[in-house]
Design brief:
Radius of gyration: 26 Å
CATH superfamily of one domain: DD-peptidase/beta-lactamase superfamily
Oligomer: single chain
Structural class: alpha+beta
Length: 484
């Protein structure tokens, strides 16, 4: 009898242990996964019991929740939805959320730790729980100009205030209307979501921060900074001026964009190579400096580093080329394994414009409780200082000359000095080019830095250039802000 009782007792204890472990796993370790599961109806209903906070641009809501009169209580509404889709993202039934809606969900939904007491107070006093509002750094004039200028092209525009890092514009195309994903019909939401997933140009991808492309000649800002700052070379340092360059240890050759030499003469300076955007001298310069000098400068500018704005930004990459001078030569003019987001390329110009100091890019000015008290405010902070003010000043002058008389002339603005750098990046045999421009204005007192990328060759295959397509887009954004 005693033996049987022991067996039963052991079985009972094991059952209790099993129950304890499973319940603990569900309640604690799996709690967040269960809460985030789009099939969790209880969580979905609960999220709509709260009047979600508004997302504001200069005090005007671009996303807000209004009474819906149905079981979900509130309907998310996006004003000018496609215009701001890269910023707000979407908030859906069953397909989660993206953009600011996702990255600041705890504040918008009223569930952040700093809102806990207010949340309890509203429940006790019988008031409807409300989320906090988020005020963005976006300048509606810059945003509209970027949206209009990009038109039907596939690509992105991002603009930054160099002295603070505040993001003034963030546009990605093709776009979409987040209102279509906010409806209270799960089947309609799923159908729209699947259509967007299959649509050409990946409209659900925020190309300003999530898309990586070879930067092409915009990377020559990094190469030139490395030469002046890390290698200690003067801007009039000369390199061999040839029409073809054989990559070290390879039978592959590269050429300049026009197929000829970089201006006249047997030698060409760093300055001329930058202004005319010549590939061969930059390839030679990269090999002459070496992997460390160039890699250190790329890292200092932000390549390889994680960043949030507060959405997560894909890390731009300049892979180490130690022992592979052929790859180093290619990467020195933005080809090879180099890839970058438009935000990273805008940071290059912003750093030059700000005297060598890059401020941390940021999309949010403040977060405020329903009673308008401040929950969080954002102050400018330094991201990195990759170069001295002297180096930045030299590169700035080269960028100004590139716009005045070099490879970026389509960014010229009458009566205003513009600094800029174009890029026309190759993507493989027969594939359309990726077209770039980055720059800032006014050059002597910068108010705005911008990066433009046009993907898929802008519909022109390999005949378009950064100067022909990307530079005019940047010009319109710069003009819009300067003419305010």
């Amino acid at each position: 009898m005693t033996r049987e009782l022991k067996r039963v007792s052991i079985v009972v204890v094991l059952m209790f242990v099993t129950l304890f472990v499973s319940s603990t796993t569900i309640q604690f370790f799996q709690a967040s996964n269960l809460a985030d599961n789009p099939r969790n109806a209880r969580t979905i209903y609960a999220s709509y019991d709260v009047q979600r906070g508004s997302i504001l641009v200069q005090g005007q809501p671009i996303a807000e929740s209004v009474p819906s009169g149905d079981e979900y209580k509130y309907q998310r509404v996006y004003t000018n939805g496609p215009l701001y889709s890269a910023v707000t993202g979407y908030y859906t039934l069953g397909q989660g959320s993206t953009g600011i809606e996702q990255s600041l969900n705890d504040y918008l939904s009223g569930t952040s730790s700093s809102q806990f007491l207010d949340y309890l107070n509203r429940i006790i006093t019988g008031q409807n729980p409300q989320g906090a509002s988020v005020s963005l750094t976006i300048d509606p004039v810059a945003q509209q100009a970027a949206y209009d200028a990009l038109g039907d092209l596939q690509g992105a525009v991002v603009a930054i205030e160099p002295s603070t890092g505040r993001i003034l514009a963030m546009v990605s195309k093709p776009d979409y209307d987040p209102n279509a994903l906010a409806v209270h019909d799960t089947k309609a939401v799923d159908d729209t979501y699947q259509q967007l997933l299959q649509a050409a140009g990946d409209p659900l991808i925020n190309k300003t921060i999530d898309d990586l492309n070879p930067p092409g000649s915009t990377f020559k800002i990094v190469t030139t900074a490395a030469a002046l700052q890390n290698a200690g070379l003067p801007v009039d340092h000369t390199l061999e001026n040839t029409a073809r360059y054989q990559l070290p240890g390879s039978d592959q050759t590269v050429s300049n964009a026009g197929g000829g030499t970089c201006g006249g003469g047997d030698q060409v300076s760093i300055a001329t190579a930058f202004i005319l955007s010549c590939n061969i001298p930059m390839a030679e310069l990269g090999v002459e400096m070496g992997d460390k000098d160039l890699g250190d400068m790329a890292n200092a500018f932000g390549f390889g580093k994680e960043l949030t704005v507060p959405m997560d930004v894909a890390a731009s990459q300049f892979p180490s080329t130690a022992g592979d001078d052929a790859q180093l030569a290619l990467q020195s003019f933005g080809q090879g394994s180099d890839v970058a987001t438009p935000l990273q390329i805008a940071m290059l110009s912003a750093g030059v414009a700000n005297g060598g100091k890059i401020m941390t890019p940021n999309l949010v000015d403040s977060i405020n409780a329903p009673d308008l008290s401040s929950l969080q405010s954002f102050q400018p902070k330094e991201f990195a200082t990759p170069m001295t003010s002297d180096t930045a000043s030299t590169i700035s002058q080269l960028m100004v000359e590139a716009v005045q008389s070099g490879a970026a002339t389509n960014a010229r603005i009458d009566g205003t000095s513009v600094a800029g750098k174009t890029g026309t990046a190759e993507n493989g045999d027969g594939d359309p080019y990726t077209l770039w421009f980055t720059g800032y204005a006014p050059a002597d007192n910068p108010r705005i830095a911008v990066a433009v990328v046009v993907e898929n060759g802008g519909g022109q295959g390999q005949s378009g250039t950064g100067n022909s397509l990307a530079a005019p887009i940047a010009k319109q954004v710069l003009e819009a802000v300067l003419n305010k």
